Amino acid sequence: MTSELESQQHCRLTESAMKMTDRNPFRWIPPFGHWEEEFENYKKFDEYPRLTEEDRENLTLSNFEFKWFLVYFHRMGGRLIFAAFFGPFIYFWLKGYFSAALKKRMILVAILMALQVSLLFCKF
After folding, report:
1. What is the largest CA-CA distance in the chain?
2. pTM higher than 0.70, yes or no?
3. Distance between CA 37 and CA 33 in Å, rounded?
4. Distance from the CA of 58 to the CA of which of 47, 75, 106, 115 falls in 20 to 30 A?
5. How many alpha carbons lie under 13 Å from residue 97 in its C-beta half-sphere?
6. Lowest-confidence range among 51-60, 70-79, 95-104, 113-122?
7. d(Cα 39, Cα 60) in Å, to the nearest integer?
8. Domain edges within the chain
9. What are the CA-CA distances from residue 111 to residues 6, 70, 82, 99, 114 (Å)?
């Protein structure tokens, strides 16, 4: 969890937050050897024209790769948090370890997490 927070803070401090061009939620492997193609796809994406001229000039392939990995590790951290919650959640629910009050709270947390995950598919 600490590395997840560090990744978010680094993105904010360096203003390197960037959307990934591939919204496939099951993309697990970075595009090793295909960085030029991924960079060209990013240039076609709706976020690229909104960059300032200076930012576009400073966005080199190596800089793009670094920012891509920040976004990638942020996604992987989110998936880890998702698995760390829902794995035990399902196990404890099925074993009957939750009281009625705790079930309501856990359902609320699960709904909030599901809503956040659903934002992956929204185009802003």
Report:
1. 58
2. no
3. 9
4. 75
5. 9
6. 113-122
7. 9
8. 2-121
9. 26, 26, 12, 18, 5
What is the crossing angle of helices 61-95 and 2-14, to 10°?
A: 150
CB 3 within 8 A of CB 77: yes
69 close to 30: Cβ distance less than 8 angstroms: yes
Closest by Cα among 79, 71, 66 to 113? 79
The C-alpha atoms of residue 61 and residue 36 are separated, in whole angstroms, by 7
Assign 60 to helix, strand or coil. Answer: coil
With both helix axes pointing from N to C terminus, report the angle between 61-95 and 100-118 in degrees, rounded to the nearest 10.
160
Q: Tokens 């598919």: give the residue.
A: 121
Per-residue confidence band for 30, with pLDDT thresholds at 50, 70 and 90: confident
Q: Judge contact between 68 and 18, C-beta under 8 A.
A: yes
Report DSSP state, residue 47. Answer: T
Residue with tokens 């970075």: 30
| Position 115, amino acid | L
Find all residues with CB under 8 Å of 103, minimum gap 6, and list them: 93
